[in-house]
Amino acid sequence: MTARVVRAAAVQAEPKWLDLEAGVTHLVELIGEAAGNGAQLVSFPETFIPGYPWWIWLDSPAWGMQFVARYAENSMTRDGAEMQRIAAAAAQHRIHVVFGFSERAGGSLYMSQAFIDDAGEVIAVRRKLKPTSVERAVFGEGDGSDIQVHDTALGKIGALNCWEHFQPLTKYAMYSLGEQIHVGSWPSFSVYRGAAHALGAAVNNAASLTYAVEGQAFVLAPCGVVGQAAHDLFCDTPVKEQLLLQGGGFTQIYGPEGSVLAQPLDEHEEGILYADLDFSLIAIAKSAADPVGHYSRPDVVRLLLNRQPSPVVVDRAPLAVLEEVEA
Hints:
Largest sheet: 7 strands, mixed
Number of strands: 12
Order of helices and strands: EHEHHEEEEEHEHEEHHEEHH
Family: Belongs to the carbon-nitrogen hydrolase superfamily. Nitrilase family.
Number of helices: 9
Helix content: 25-40%
Number of domains: 1
Domain CN hydrolase: 6-279
CATH class: Alpha Beta
Structural class: alpha/beta
GO molecular function: nitrilase activity; nitrile hydratase activity
Distance between the termini: 49 Å
Shape: globular
CATH superfamily: Carbon-nitrogen hydrolase
Radius of gyration: 20 Å
């Protein structure tokens, strides 16, 4: 049964850059902190393990090659010891966890988010459908099966990464699945400050807020922080330090009718935001505007959605292939 009020948390913190073991330890500590403050659900930024690959925005691909192997080596698999350790922490503290990580599968990496329940079960892992711009030099794409909303003891929980919140059709698909709590994970709003406004806090927090109001869902918008450790690793010139400013943490929690439910932290500060999510607000918001229900016009506009997995190889018996060709 859906809980009427859920205490939720959104993390604002700097990752342990390109260090898988330290990153998992940090994440487990933050899980314990959130649970200790009464949270039933805690959410983390995009690619919190092993941190967002900021080098892709700072210089040429040739310069960035120095980070590629290390980043891959410190990325997680979805069924490895690190995932088991995080799941054990969720079970120990009886808390639901949604976190972003760089997923290593074979020779490829993906911008993934894991859902773990308070019994320590990994409910699902989903991948970002389309990495943004230069992210595609590092990460592969997800498929339709990565549009997911999961029934939990807390309610229906879904998640997207970063600029997936700029994709109207993807958002509409998520709304149609009855999402009640949405985790919108962001890496940090630190790059190209003052020049590329679409990468900044004002625009991207507006996207999170719009998601809440359009979908009549609570939105947890955890956001990473860029600190001195990131500058030491990625910025070998003063120019790069200006391209990637320190700070950039703008974590928010929004209500389904557009309210701000937690006092934001300073952009340089690390911490956790908390809010009590009163599900009666969803019913009130949907009574006015439900874009996948009474406020829709499917006779005029509707969405075609393919949620099937798209594996690169499909095993088929020879007879089945022959019958398909003859048909």
